[in-house]
Amino acid sequence: MALFMDMHDLKAAVALDDVAKAHAADLATQDAYGVHYLRYWVDEGDGKIFCLVDAPMKRPRTTVHRTAHGLVADAIYRVTEGD
């Protein structure tokens, strides 16, 4: 599996509680696609959301977002964890 960082740019403010609900929907959906959503970060004022995902490739994690809540990422980066 590989680590991916999704970046969502909603272009408007977003509430942390709404992002938490979307993340919970991802967690409820992820097992069907062999994906594991690990963490997320939110810039509430700028409407940016970052999701750290353990997935075999980009496509399954996009499918989880689309199925769980419809908010697909604007950018996806394959990342390597450092110390």
Topology:
Blueprint: E1 2-9, H1 16-29, E2 36-43, E3 48-55, H2 58-68, E4 75-79
Antiparallel strand pairs: 1-3, 1-4, 2-3
In short:
This protein has 83 residues and is α+β, with helices and mostly antiparallel strands.
Structure in words:
The protein has a single domain, classed as Alpha-Beta Plaits (2-Layer Sandwich), CATH 3.30.70. 30% of the residues lie in helices and 35% in strands. It has 2 helices and 4 strands. The protein has helices at residues 16-29, 58-68, and strands at 2-9, 36-43, 48-55, 75-79. The protein has a 4-stranded antiparallel β-sheet. β2 and β3 (48-55) form a beta hairpin. α1 (16-29) packs across α2 (58-68). It is globular, with a radius of gyration of 12 Å. The model has no long low-confidence stretch (mean pLDDT 93).
Keywords, separated by commas or semicolons:
alpha+beta, Alpha-Beta Plaits, 4 strands, globular
Low-confidence stretches: none
Give the name of the CATH architecture: 2-Layer Sandwich
* Strand segment count: 4
Strand order of the largest sheet: 2-3-1-4
Kindly provide the radius of gyration, computed on alpha-carbon positions and rounded to a whole number of angstroms. 12 Å
Mean pLDDT, to the nearest integer, reads 93
CATH superfamily: ORF SCO4226, nickel-binding ferredoxin-like monomer
H/E element sequence: EHEEHE
Number of alpha- plus pi-helical segments: 2
Instruction: Indicate the proportion of strand residues.
Output: 25-35%
CATH class: Alpha Beta
Instruction: Using the coordinates shown, work out and report the CATH topology.
Output: Alpha-Beta Plaits
Categorize the overall geometry: globular
Q: Could you estimate the helical fraction of the residues in percent? A: 25-40%
Structural class: alpha+beta
Cα distance, first to last residue? 19 Å
Overall number of structural domains: 1
